[in-house]
């Protein structure tokens, strides 16, 4: 069967404002409005769809202008919906503040996407890929429902968990429920530090690999680290020649045989807007896994996708598969 990507994350609307820098507490700063565009899990699904992966949104969406905007973008990129709009609320939004360096800061307001999810409407079959967002695991959203449901997802489904900026607010009991079932955890360095207390990227990757099956730690312009709990075979590991380096790092104190941490380099990029870069990375990584690429090759494609995305304004800036192929060809390993 053809693999499908199903996301039970939160698709929202980003209200994007460009500012020179964040103001001090009680201060003010002049900004310029960029407009509104789908964000959150919508970015990840759009990125995966543009890489050729059939994609389905299994989360909530509302009745109103925000819900209409999200659905219009999904229709444009061929993304299906597993449930009808919620009649009592509109899709939520966040205010995405983009500073002069392209870094983004969010203020999120939940809407229909945070309403109780009906997991019976989410059909996941062996061979599919399942995306879970940390926003959907909060106590205020669907943590009590999604945590136990993810823990029981059948083997043969590749489950990726993106903890997101509010990962420190996810109830620990929900995280514990999912640890033995999640195949990949994908996060940035700030999130890795919040989850582990480790400031060094490699140390954080090792600590995460001790708790989860495998980890992609996104490092922006530097690329990413791929950490796997046990040393895989060469065939499963794939190869990324050149400056990538593989380190077998002992984790006997955690009761594991070894953790393999591999640095997968990034690509040159002129940063315009980092909003949506992590989502683009996750979508491209999942699409590459679905296409049969080994994890390290999938991570390299994801790095290329994110490098293109940050050079464009707006969160829905993920490139097509052809654009990723062109960048990879221009920078052979």
Key structural traits:
333 residues; alpha/beta; UDP-N-acetylmuramoyl-L-alanine:D-glutamate ligase; ten-stranded mixed beta sheet; four-stranded mixed beta sheet; 10 helices
Written account of the structure:
- The chain is of the alpha/beta class and 333 residues long.
- The protein has a single domain, classed as Ribokinase (UDP-N-acetylmuramoyl-L-alanine:D-glutamate ligase, 3-Layer(aba) Sandwich), CATH 3.40.1190.
- The protein is built from 10 helices and 14 strands.
- It has helices at residues 41-50, 65-76, 143-151, 172-178, 189-196, 201-211, 234-237, 277-290, 295-309, 321-330, and strands at residues 4-7, 11-18, 32-40, 54-57, 80-81, 93-98, 104-109, 129-133, 158-162, 184-188, 214-218, 224-228, 245-249, 259-264.
- The strands form 2 sheets. The chain has a 10-stranded mixed β-sheet, with helices on both faces. The chain has a 4-stranded mixed β-sheet with strand order 3-2-6-7.
- α8 (277-290) runs antiparallel to α9.
- The radius of gyration is 19 Å and the shape is globular.
- The two termini are 32 Å apart.
Integer-rounded radius of gyration? 19 Å
Would you tell me the structural class of the helices and strands? Answer: alpha/beta
Low-confidence stretches: 231-257
Shape: globular
What kind of sheet is the major sheet?
A: 10 strands, mixed
Percentage of residues in strands:
15-25%
User: What order do the strands of the largest sheet run in, or round the barrel if closed?
Assistant: 5-4-1-8-9-10-11-12-14-13
User: Which topology does CATH recognise?
Assistant: UDP-N-acetylmuramoyl-L-alanine:D-glutamate ligase
Number of helical stretches of at least 4 residues: 10
CATH class: Alpha Beta
SSE ordering: EEEHEHEEEEHEHEHHEEHEEHHH
Tell me the domain tally. Answer: 1
Helix content: 25-40%
